[in-house]
Design a protein that fits this description.
By secondary structure, this protein is of the alpha+beta class. 28% of the residues lie in helices and 22% in strands. It binds a DNA duplex through loops.
DNA sequence: AGTGAGGCCTGAAAGC
DNA sequence: TGCTTTCAGGCCTCAC
């Protein structure tokens, strides 16, 4: 379940592994991802040199020296694998990039991810980015911004945190974690969230995501397996998937509760969070 | 316009 | 044991 920290970690790992490589060959075995991979995708990247790596929200953007950018989203089950030489391909290996510095494989069983390409200068006109909210680490994300964005909404705060057009990069797992640290119930309506609580949400979003990125970086070193897998590391979650376990951060002795909001599970401590 | 439900998709886990 | 059902979640489309 790649959220911002996982995407950031994977982007960094790919950058470190193949850096400014030349793309010598691309194989597309399945183009039916969430968005169909363009028919001429291979020819557009063939022979190009990679000049930049970015994370935009939960997307990885790889800029090429031919003024085009590759856009990758991992959806729910997407993985990136890196090999030094020709790997043995397995089920759901949909796209393989052969470069001068190694082989990068995109594997996605559920095919909720996507791979696309566009002119670099048109990047922010793409539907993926056009309506995207502020990155959690962007200085422009302030308590005032959040407050003004959610203040008149009639949705739960948990749902608002998942709305990528407000803040981008937060997914279902970290939404619960951020609310837990902020002592706010996931079911609280947005119009009942104070400016002060918006500050807590912004601060805790940065704390939680930063910790996960650091953990991801360190976990990845130990995690790199012979199969080249850059899968998902286990994070230190306080409440996510901890139903029935004791609230870890205080002495309330309360058990973590699971509920479903808009078809997504939320986890919280009924004593700590109000 | 804002909001919520449904759907995409597969594999693991739970249920029978 | 082996089959069927449920669940997981990012994000888009559709309907109210």
């Amino acid at each position: 379940m790649p959220e911002l920290p996982e995407v950031e970690t994977i982007k960094n790992a790919v950058q470190k592994s193949i850096a400014n490589a030349n793309i010598s060959k691309v194989e597309v075995f399945c183009n039916k991802l969430r968005i169909k991979i363009p028919e001429n995708f291979s020819t557009q990247v063939l022979g190009a040199k990679i000049v930049d790596y970015k994370r935009i929200g939960k997307y990885i953007v790889i800029a090429l020296d031919n003024q085009k950018s590759i856009i990758i989203h991992l959806g729910m089950s997407g993985k990136i694998k890196i090999f030094e030489t020709q790997p043995e391909l397995i089920k759901h290996d949909h796209v393989v990039f052969y470069t001068s510095n190694g082989v990068v494989v995109y594997n996605d069983p559920r095919r909720f991810g996507l791979i696309d390409i566009c002119e670099s200068k048109e990047l922010f006109n793409k539907v993926y980015f056009a309506k995207m909210g502020i990155d959690p680490f962007d200085k422009k994300l302030t308590q005032q911004y959040l407050f003004e964005k959610i203040n008149n909404k009639r949705i739960d705060i948990k749902t608002a945190l998942l709305d990528q057009s407000i803040i981008n990069g937060i997914g279902n797992i970290y939404a619960s974690e951020i609310l837990y640290l902020s002592k706010i119930l996931p079911t609280r309506n947005c119009d009942k969230i104070s400016l002060e609580e918006c500050k807590a949400l912004v601060d805790n979003a940065r704390i939680v995501l930063n910790q996960a990125i650091e953990k991801g970086g360190s976990t990845l070193r130990d995690y790199q397996k012979p199969d080249g897998s850059l899968g998902y590391f286990q994070n230190m979650h306080c409440v996510y998937n901890k139903t029935g376990q004791k609230c870890p951060k205080c002495n309330c002795n309360e058990a973590i509760v699971k509920i479903v909001q808009k078809g997504r599970s939320s986890f919280y401590c009924p004593t700590k969070q109000k």
